[in-house]
């Protein structure tokens, strides 16, 4: 056998910036990767709004806020910084491409590894151990996500993460393209997950809860619930709800927040 593979001139390869000088900030790799895993799934995949194809980085004091949305759900995670960021980093918001975030999540993690972050023009550079990653930043304006996070809900309940994930998966077994959602029916000390496929049957999963508020019925896309319940690290989480047409709010500890738009089940 004989093969001939044509190459290109090395000089035509794009210039790769090197990581030189002091970083703008430093983050423990383990913490950064945990934040990425809790937000990355919520980024848009093929959206005409290019800005939400990436993840927003916003500095608040000594914490990094990672925010991702696809227009139907929103994930926000707080990550503690290893040191206070410099003035350049603390004063701006940037959007890092989802592919770059996914690449960072694949770096082999050791307990004491630290990621150094540096901004160079419209690029961001990451240095960790013997790995350097450079990426262009996403241009555009990220949505004003604070405006869609509910702050006035009074209907709150605490649920077991493992039990809720199991209930969502089981109730979603009997859904179809027409009834692509599951219904959450909340009453006094009772939560019922139900799904329905007109030509197949119905599913109902009961869960005892501690709840004394007003009855609520609301529909959600089960896959969106599964996505967030899979990445919650705490054994329990808080679910806050308003009216049927208002988004659901999920909180895990003080650092993870998830907003999910409801769907109309007819």
UniProtKB/TrEMBL annotation:
**Primary location recorded for the protein, binned into one broad class:** cytoplasm
The residue ranges of the DNA polymerase III beta sliding clamp C-terminal domain are 148-262
Example GO CC term: the record gives: DNA polymerase III complex
| InterPro entries membership | DNA_clamp_sf, DNA_polIII_beta, DNA_polIII_beta_C, DNA_polIII_beta_cen
Write down the Pfam families for this protein, in alphabetical order: DNA_pol3_beta_2, DNA_pol3_beta_3
Spell out the molecular function terms from Gene Ontology. 3'-5' exonuclease activity; DNA binding; DNA-directed DNA polymerase activity
Gene Ontology annotations of biological process type = DNA strand elongation involved in DNA replication
DNA polymerase III beta sliding clamp central domain sequence ranges: 28-144
What stretches pass through the bilayer? none
The UniProt entry's sequence similarity note says: Belongs to the beta sliding clamp family.
Against SMART domains, the record matches this protein to: POL3Bc
* The entry's keywords: Cytoplasm, DNA replication, DNA-binding, DNA-directed DNA polymerase, Nucleotidyltransferase, Transferase
Location(s), subcellular: Cytoplasm
- State the name under which the record lists this protein: DNA polymerase III beta sliding clamp C-terminal domain-containing protein
């Amino acid at each position: 056998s004989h093969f001939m593979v044509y190459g290109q001139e090395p000089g035509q390869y794009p210039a790769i910036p090197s990581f030189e000088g002091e970083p703008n900030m430093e983050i423990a790799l383990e913490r950064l990767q945990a934040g990425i895993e809790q937000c990355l799934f919520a980024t848009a995949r093929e959206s005409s709004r290019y800005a939400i194809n990436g993840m927003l980085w916003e500095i608040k004091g000594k914490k990094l806020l990672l925010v991702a949305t696809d227009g139907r759900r929103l994930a926000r995670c707080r990550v503690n910084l290893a040191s206070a960021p410099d003035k350049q980093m603390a004063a701006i918001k940037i959007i890092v491409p989802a592919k770059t975030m996914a690449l960072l999540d694949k770096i082999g993690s050791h307990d004491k590894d630290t990621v150094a972050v540096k901004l160079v023009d419209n690029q961001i550079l990451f240095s960790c151990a013997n790995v350097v990653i450079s990426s262009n930043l996403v241009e555009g304006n990220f949505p004003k996500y604070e405006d869609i996070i509910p702050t006035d809900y009074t209907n709150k309940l605490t649920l077991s993460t493992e039990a809720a994930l199991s209930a969502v998966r089981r109730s979603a077994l009997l859904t179809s393209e027409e009834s692509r959602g599951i219904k959450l029916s909340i009453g006094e000390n009772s939560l019922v997950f139900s799904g329905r496929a007109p030509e197949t049957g119905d599913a109902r999963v009961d869960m005892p809860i501690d709840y004394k508020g007003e009855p609520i019925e609301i529909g959600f896309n089960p896959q969106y619930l599964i996505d967030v319940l899979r990445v919650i690290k705490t054994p329990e989480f808080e679910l806050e709800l308003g009216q049927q047409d208002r988004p659901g709010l999920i909180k895990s500890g003080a650092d993870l927040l998830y907003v999910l738009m409801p769907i109309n089940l007819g």
